[in-house]
Amino acid sequence: MANKKHKTKEDKTEVNEPQAEYGDKEMIFFNSFEEMNEYDHRLYASLTPEECLSEVTAMRLRMYPHLKTNLYPWGKEIYKD
Fold first, then answer.
1. Strands (E), 3-81
2. Do the beta carbons of residue 67 and residue 61 sit within 8 Å?
3. Mean pLDDT for all residues in the chain
4. Where are the beta strands (DSSP E) in the chain?
C-alpha cells in the first residue's frame, strides 16, 4: 500500500470545453451587480442608432413572436383624438 500513486487534483477553475461551442462569443463573469450594470451601460452607450433599433427589434420579437408574422396586430385603422 505504501507504493500506491496518488492522483493529483486538477484545477477546477479552468474550463476544458471546446471553443467551437460558443463561436466568437465570450463569457464574462462579474464580481457584483453594480459591475455588471456598468458594463451594460457602457455597451449600450457605444451602440450606433441602427444597432439600438436592431437590439430593440430583437427583444420585441423575442417577447412577442406573433408580431413577426402579423403585420397589423392591432388593426389597420388609426384613430385620432
1. none
2. yes
3. 80
4. none
Residues in the chain: 81
Largest CA distance in the chain: 91
pLDDT on residue 31: 94
What CA–CA distances, in Å, run from 40 to 6, 30, 33, 46?
Answer: 46, 11, 10, 10
pLDDT per 10-residue tile (average), the chain, 81 residues = 61 66 78 95 94 90 83 74 67
39 and 30 in contact (C-beta within 8 Å)? yes
CA-based angle 5:6:8, to the nearest 5? 135
DSSP structure class, residue 4: P
Inter-residue contact 73 to 66 (CB < 8 Å): yes
pLDDT for position 39: 95
